[in-house]
Design brief:
heterotrimer, A mainly alpha (about 300), B alpha/beta (about 525), C mainly alpha (about 325), A: about 300 residues, mainly alpha, about 75% helix, about 0% strand, elongated, B: about 525 residues, alpha/beta, Rossmann fold, six-stranded mixed sheet, about 35% helix, about 25% strand, AAA+_ATPase (chain B)
Chain lengths: ~300, ~525, ~325
């Protein structure tokens, strides 16, 4: 078996693993609220059994029902924050890459460089001190801390694409701005952007969950996996399921997302094909075994 | 596959034992043979050249001498190295063989260290250093002490090449494989590389030269092996091959340059039909490059240069002489310049963005890297037709018909141009790029090194096209940017640039036969020397 | 050499600008309070006396630029202001929490470097084989997991089920060194993400370098495998790894906040979280400035080291 075939197989295995891991938390998060039904009466805190599959939580609510409700805010906030950060980063990055006005580029990018220096969780906590944000506010904050990095990436990708001779050739042909910026530059950047969106989503998931765990952007008794981990910790000795179930789901969600995106986006068939065509001239050579042994 | 040290057997018929020998080598990748039935002998002090277009299998053969094969290759045949079995390698780009994170001294001492192991520990260091300095001296490196403290990226291209050579000498290599050492280099650099390789051979080392640069092969090679599609087409002593090539492919490979402007137009005064009416005039042009660390540097200063209608002008010079910048200024791709560029007496806007349709159409530019100048996602035909649609307001169907006609005229069949650029070869894409520019019906066509990096047969094809163009369209003026005097010789007039200054210009015949500026003289001398073997 | 000097100068300038910006940003955020800042900060108990006290303590009756000037001057002299809730100087809060946090951070970094490089080199040496696949998959999976989720699971298994380790550091105060068992879980959790990113980076860098033409040339010329790995390929992987090490300071900070909350360690993270909960603006401001400046300085250092290691690599400045 060739090395390349081997890597492809490995990637497929990783992809399957990612899907398997992510499917449970994702289905629970998206469809859970539909099956949760009406909340039952509150009973004693931290009980096990007694008609409650996963026991009860710190205020006596059914943990399973909380689990069914608690994934949606995490996933939706993360998705919204990722989308929002691109909503700002795309135009900022594109304009600063394609403009020929130096001052505009500086005006757009320099403030972002500065923002990049502040640790993201610190910025979120700082804002939380002052604003007490709701879930929408949390999404905005997480989006904000992601903008500098995303904008830099967009700009770098666009600058690289716009400097190619192909763009100059389009200019020589008198092509429209739209055809150059969107049709060519946009298309060339697409792969980079999709790959970045994958890693960014995992980072955003991490940040949203951690902020919620620290009590930012959520009500103290919200049905949210991260909040559940935090609030039910006091009963960890009596009723570990109220903590372990949501914690496991968060681990599965983040782990699975990362494995999935990595397998889907790393070095896929496209580059395989290009490499395949160039094979006869391949400079990556393997040394003849006999000789290398003779030498060392 | 075995590497035995036994060279006695079959080698007896020659007076000298070969330092390396390949017999009946076959390298197969994925069921396809990329090298098949190749044999070669490298003799001490002799240069064996493997000649062929890219993809002919010469690199695979050369690397086999080093015991290296493409990954997943199935190899049969024999590769033998002489007694101590040491082989050196000089890659096309010497910088790639030098670890950017290590100083030159570390790179060389690593090799020397293995050779001083037999000495007592205390003396190893000085002994290794002695060896390093000796190897640098043998590789003709001046200021070795200073050089040793530098990182590879702080060296010039020439210094890097010498360090790579010093590595091979330090190793005590009996055979050195040089992979396309002169591709894309200007005449002076080429001549330096040729000297170095000749010096290596003079030390009794066998040199295996992989090249498609026939000038260099002609000067250096004792033995030539012509390869095509993984097979040896013909081999023999260089002089025999040059005088009486037996195979048709060799004849084609070695045949002279195309008839470019040989007819009456180019001779004598050097003026072309329609002469006297300048199409393009350049007045007091100064161009700069901006660099974030070093600020701005002036790279080009021209007081005046004219291009007449129907005339072809070659702009020659070494790399870094400013010739590409000149071309990009004319095309509007380099905005950072002062002075005037007049098209039929009207100044052209500095930037492409400010030029109107007619102005864009009038001055067209063909890029050095044809592949990079096409959008890889759209069919070639579609991209070529866009020129007529955008610049001449042609209907889409008419434009496509015209593009198809032009492309077919340049030797590209319809089913080929309906594909995406990825499926065309470099030479085919360069033809398509010419078609794309021609569809604008330009007054001035600028060709920026469009033949460098192509093998000689493909290059001849492209130059042939340019010749035909000049004949057929007498209002078209050509600007050929080149570092290759052979290509320049085909133009009506030559302008020579050095360090951003126009040092000489005049009719091609005059400049080539009686160069007046010292720089042109030196450029000519090296080229003549490289081309010396032609007539013999 | 002038290239190096101008790079250092530019990078220092950016560092200074970032520091100033952090200070301004921290101040501006508290300025951005809607309506009357004192009322907003008083929060759930809008008691007039408290509002007046806050107004007094923060000098809210004076113009913003004067307060900024005062605060910045104070910062310059090491005076970070006074807490709104306790009236104690902010500097004292930081001094109290500094010990445990420094201990956690030092232990983590001290373990991070050998483990991260070790795993990376190990995976690269066995590229494509079982060891590599195992390391790559695990690091990829753990990389994205939030510390708090991993932390509670480890507590449940290692402390509650198996009883090997204490579940929290409650009762040990700041004397953590006296109870090393209590440090195992926090450090383990803190290490999880940075180790993954560092080892992946080292692995990728080494594999790239091992496949490069210059390593091929070194092999050709008979240089030993060990020497090629550690003297030729590793230096190439070092520069990006050092930069990543500095970037992990950001993560380490998030990690410290979470881990201190999770294991009840009275460090700077706990101080920060308490201050956030009590809306004690001067304490939050002070800590933000300290953390922000620390991040800037560490990144600056890493960029300089990386520039020294790979002079040719363009470091974003």
């Amino acid at each position: 078996m060739t090395k390349r075939g081997h890597m492809t197989k490995l990637r497929t295995a990783r992809f399957a693993l990612g899907v398997t891991i992510v499917i449970v938390p994702l289905v629970l998060a998206l469809l859970g609220p539909l099956f949760a039904g009406e909340p039952g009466p509150r009973t004693t805190s931290f009980t096990v059994g007694d008609g409650h599959w996963l026991g009860t939580d710190f205020v006596g609510r059914d943990v399973w029902q909380q689990v069914l409700h608690g994934g949606r805010p995490v996933v939706l906030t993360a998705l919204a924050a990722t989308a929002l950060s691109y909503l700002v980063a795309l135009p900022v990055g594109l304009v600063s890459a394609l403009t020929h006005r130096r001052w505009l580029e500086e005006l757009l990018m320099r403030p972002l460089d500065v923002l990049l220096a502040v640790p993201s969780l610190l910025l979120i906590l700082l804002a939380a001190t002052v604003f007490s944000p709701d879930p929408v506010g949390l999404a905005l904050l997480v989006a904000l801390v992601n903008v500098p990095d995303a904008a830099r990436l967009v700009r770098a990708a666009a600058t690289e694409a716009a400097a190619r001779p192909a763009v100059e050739a389009l200019r020589m042909q008198g092509e429209t701005w739209w055809r150059m910026a969107v049709d060519y530059v946009g298309r060339s950047m697409l792969r980079t952007l999709v790959a970045d969106a994958g890693t960014r989503l995992t980072g955003v998931l991490y940040l949203v969950a951690t902020a919620a765990f620290l009590g930012v952007g959520v009500a103290p008794d919200a049905a949210d996996w991260a909040v559940m981990v935090d609030r039910n910790r006091t009963g960890l000795f009596v009723q570990p399921w109220a903590v372990v179930a949501p914690a496991l789901l968060i681990v599965a969600l983040t782990m699975g997302t990362n494995l999935l995106f990595d397998a889907a986006l790393s070095d896929d068939r496209l580059s395989e094909r290009v490499r395949g065509e160039k094979l006869p001239d391949a400079t990556r050579t393997l040394r003849d075994g006999a000789r290398s042994e003779a030498r060392t | 596959m075995n590497h035995t040290d036994d060279t006695t057997g079959e080698a007896r018929d020659t007076t000298v034992a070969p330092v390396a020998e390949i017999r009946n080598l076959r390298v197969e990748v994925g069921g396809r043979a990329i090298v098949d039935g190749v044999s070669l002998k490298a003799l001490p002090g002799k240069v064996t050249a493997l000649v062929g277009a890219s993809g002919s299998g010469k690199t695979t053969t050369g690397l086999a001498l080093l015991g290296e094969y493409p990954s997943g290759a199935h190899v049969t045949g024999d590769v033998r190295l002489a007694a101590d079995g040491l082989a050196g390698y000089i890659p096309q780009h010497p910088a790639t063989a030098l670890n950017p994170a290590r100083r030159v001294s570390a790179l060389l001492t690593d090799i020397a260290r293995a050779q001083v192991r037999h000495l007592p520990r205390g003396r190893r260091r000085t002994a290794a250093r002695e060896r390093v300095l000796r190897a640098l001296a043998e590789a003709q490196v001046p200021d070795a002490e200073i050089l040793l403290r530098r990182y590879p990226h702080q060296l010039s291209g020439g210094q890097q090449q010498r360090v790579v050579l010093a590595q091979a000498l330090l190793l005590g290599a009996r055979v050195v494989v040089a992979d396309e050492p002169t591709t894309g280099q200007d005449a002076l650099t080429k001549s330096r590389v040729v000297d170095q390789l000749a010096a290596v051979a003079a030390r009794g080392i066998g040199v295996v030269l992989l090249s498609h640069d026939l000038d260099v092969v002609r000067v250096l090679a004792d033995e030539v092996i012509v390869m095509r599609a993984g097979r040896v087409v013909e081999s023999g002593p260089a002089h025999r091959l040059w005088l009486a090539p037996q195979h048709e492919w060799t004849r084609e490979l070695l045949s002279g340059q195309p008839e470019f402007t040989e007819p009456e137009t180019a001779t004598g005064s050097g003026t072309a039909p329609g002469a006297g009416r300048p199409a393009l005039r350049i007045r007091d042009l100064t161009a700069r490059h901006r660099n974030s660390t070093r600020g701005t540097t002036e790279v080009l200063r021209l007081t005046g240069l004219d291009l007449r209608a129907g005339e072809s002008l070659a702009v020659v010079g070494r790399s870094g002489s400013g010739k590409t910048t000149l071309a990009r200024c004319l095309a509007g791709l380099h905005r950072d310049h002062d002075g005037e560029i007049l098209l039929d007496g009207t100044p052209l806007p500095r930037s492409l963005r400010d030029r109107g349709r007619a102005q864009l159409a009038a001055v067209q530019y063909v890029f050095q890297d044809a592949r990079a100048s096409f959008d890889e996602h759209r069919p070639v035909l579609h991209q070529v037709a866009r020129t007529a649609i955008r610049l001449r307001r042609t209907e889409t169907s008419a434009a496509t018909q015209e593009a198809l006609a032009t492309l077919t005229g340049l030797g590209l069949p319809e089913d080929l141009v309906r594909r995406r650029p990825g499926q065309l070869s470099g030479g085919e894409l360069q033809r398509a790029a010419l078609a794309r520019a021609l569809l604008a019906r330009p007054r001035v066509l600028i060709c920026d090194e469009i033949t460098s990096g192509l093998d000689s047969i493909t290059r001849r094809g492209i130059l042939g096209i340019l010749t035909t163009l000049l004949h057929d369209r007498d209002d078209l003026s050509l600007v050929l940017i080149t570092h290759d005097l052979d290509t320049a010789a085909l133009a009506h007039r030559i302008a020579v640039l050095d360090a951003g200054e126009l040092v000489e210009q005049g009719p091609a015949r005059r400049v080539l036969s009686t160069p007046s500026h010292p720089f042109t003289v030196s450029l000519m001398e090296t080229t003549t020397r490289l081309g010396a073997g032609t007539g013999t | 050499m002038s290239g190096l000097r101008s790079f250092v100068a530019r990078r220092l300038l950016l560092g200074v600008a970032q520091t100033v910006a952090v200070v301004l940003l921290v101040f501006a955020l508290t300025e951005a309070l809607p309506g009357d800042a004192a009322v907003a900060l008083a929060g759930d108990q809008p008691d007039p006396a408290r509002i007046a006290a806050i107004r007094e303590a923060m000098h809210l009756d004076r113009p913003a630029y004067e307060r900024l000037a005062d605060w910045a001057t104070g910062l310059f002299h090491g005076d970070l202001g006074t807490s709104l809730t306790s009236g104690r100087p902010v500097g004292q809060y930081i001094a109290d929490g500094f010990g445990p946090t420094l201990l956690l951070a030092t232990l983590t970094v001290a373990l991070l470097v050998p483990i991260g490089f070790g795993l990376g080199v190990l995976a690269a040496r066995h590229e494509g084989r079982l060891a590599d696949r195992l390391i790559s998959s695990v690091t990829l999976a753990v990389y994205a997991v939030p510390e708090f989720a991993l932390g509670v699971l480890l507590v449940t298994v290692l402390a509650l089920r198996l009883g090997w380790l204490p579940p929290t550091a409650v009762g040990y105060g700041t004397d953590l060194l006296g109870h090393p068992a209590a440090l195992v879980l926090p450090v383990l959790v803190l290490l999880s993400r940075p180790v993954c990113s560092l080892s992946r980076l080292v692995r990728a860098g080494m594999i790239d370098a091992l496949a490069s033409p210059y390593v091929a040339q070194a092999r050709r010329y008979g240089i030993s495998g060990t020497r090629i790995r550690y003297a030729h390929a590793l230096p190439g992987a070092l520069a990006p790894a050092v930069q990543q090490l500095a970037r992990t300071v950001d993560w380490l900070l998030s990690g410290v906040i979470v881990v201190e909350a999770l294991y009840v360690i009275p460090g700077l993270g706990t101080v920060l979280l308490n201050a956030v909960a009590e809306r004690d603006v001067p304490v939050v401001q002070g800590l933000a400035v300290v953390f922000g400046v620390l991040t800037v300085v560490l990144n600056l250092g890493a960029d300089l080291v990386a520039h020294r290691l790979a002079p040719r690599a363009a470091v974003a400045a």
